[in-house]
Amino acid sequence: xxxxxxxxxxxxxxxxxxxxxxxxxxxxxxxxxxxxxxxxxxxxxxxxxxxxxxxxxxxxxxxxxxxxxxxxxxxxxxxxxxxxxxxxxxxxxxxxxxxxxxxxxxxxxxxxxxxxxxxxxxxxxxxxxxxxxxxxxxxxxxxxxxxxxxxxxxxxxxxxxxxxxxxxxxxxxxxxxxxxxxxxxxxxxxxxxxxxxxxxxxxxxxxxxxxxxxxxxxxxxxxxxxxxxxxxxxxxxxxxxxxxxxxxxxxxxxxxxxxxxxxxxxxxxxxxxxxxxxxxxxxxxxxxxxxxxxxxxxxxxxxxxxxxxxxxxxxxxxxxxxxxxxxxxxxxxxxxxxxxxxxxxxxxxxxxxxxxxxxxxxxxxxxxxxxxxxxxxxxxxxxxxxxxxxxxxxxxxxxxxxxxxx
Amino acid sequence: xxxxxxxxxxxxxxxxxxxxxxxxxxxxxxxxxxxxxxxxxxxxxxxxxxxxxxxxxxxxxxxxxxxxxxxxxxxxxxxxxxxxxxxxxxxxxxxxxxxxxxxxxxxxxxxxxxxxxxxxxxxxxxxxxxxxxxxxxxxxxxxxxxxxxxxxxxxxxxxxxxxxxxxxxxxxxxxxxxxxxxxxxxxxxxxxxxxxxxxxxxxxxxxxxxxxxxxxxxxxxxxxxxx
Lengths: 406, 227
Fold this sequence. Notes:
The complex is a heterodimer of chains A (406) and B (227). Chain A is of the alpha+beta class and 406 residues long. Chain A has helices at 2-10, 14-52, 78-86, 120-127, 150-155, 191-194, 202-209, 228-238, 249-252, 254-303, 307-342, 349-357, 370-387, 389-396, 400-405, and strands at residues 57-61, 90-104, 110-118, 133-136, 146-149, 163-169, 175-186, 197-201, 217-222, 244-248, 345-346, 363-364.
């Protein structure tokens, strides 16, 4: 019956209750949409940058990430490799060998370059390398050629079918020189990568550098990007020696997280102000409501209702009112967020170019992560319940005779 | 047997530099089954005396004993619980819970006593029938007349099977017909079920029906007569 009283009390002043729950719903709607856009955009940015660089997790030679040298490449243990591939949280392993060299073309231009030995088929499958092709094909064991980033090809004045010379140092000081036909040109978006990257077939680069069977890293493709910590813990049990390291993208690129967190803080400050304003609105309602009810509280106290039960009823009343607003705001936000999740806002003009330069797609997709709804709904509910302590304190300090006299 | 007993009961208020003795050294005994009215002019201390007896106010001096229990010594939570079990209240302004129906208002007291749903329902119906409101039991207070609301208040006061009912000016807002009906009901409950009633009133119709009249003035009992 206490719940019944609390529920019916809400509707004693329909207009006031409607205004209060509308303001709660609006605040939550705004908060969810804002965070959905921010989170969706960050996820997109993370995903773009991660896919273009490290992948979500890497199995590397010991200390490779701190000093990225061919000499720190490692030979993956085939038994451990099989065990990793057999883990339920792992989709695949992509071997990569990376090195630096001087690149030259027949028009006497030379440029420093970043060599990536890859299994192009797997890179296409998981990182869509094929979609970045502007012309030609991906390198493989049959064509024995190189895929050049478009900026690099332009600087070296190289086109499809031309020959490029690689002059470098191989594994443990070996000479690494070779001559390769250009079999493909790709737009890598990221301006730095696009001016320096050369893709070769993994075995070809191993042969060129004398790093037979060696890789700089095995990129681990997880089934879920949200359970990397658990996955790393599991895989660490498989790779229990000290000759290799397991690193998540957060460990490899902490600066990316810091940049996003700094940006996110601005959004949170706006939300804080919003919650403050709405909080005062709710408090105003609770103040009026408590003042109006004082005589009634006096009566209830007189006839034998304990202060605890009265406080509980008041708590339920505020909680129910907030819940209605929270449900309203959540349901209103869902279709809008879902629409922009499946149809992201496309950026135009300078923003478009800037995003592409950083290797990100010029899109603002909204997130449908349930945590956003849960977190902000809970914040709204907690704010309301904390404010309802005013009524609780009033009830506990109430003198029934004075209250009834009002 | 005394249901209510006060000894040298006083309630003193501070008003600026002066002290006001709203109730002053009152010795009173009310026996079980009495139908008693406390009368006197406005500001004479009737309501304060009832509040002290009902445990709603704290005495400045003296004692209040209800069924041999010195309630002036009880803590706040004990007093609330004591009121719930031993005292029925009827207020001048009815003071029903507006969001509950007549039946729910009567049941509410029994809910506070943690009685079962079936026990609550059957007693609420029985009491509303006793006050002549069996046809209105599902109506909310706003749908009832003042007289009907006060009859619900009487039914509510009796719901917990209290030792006695305190009624502060119960007929002050009622018309003649409603007043007569209410007095008939209370009188019948007093005679047939032995329920003790203690009123404060100005109303001559109540005074005429009361079997004991306690006249209060300046916070003191000036006369106490049984008819």
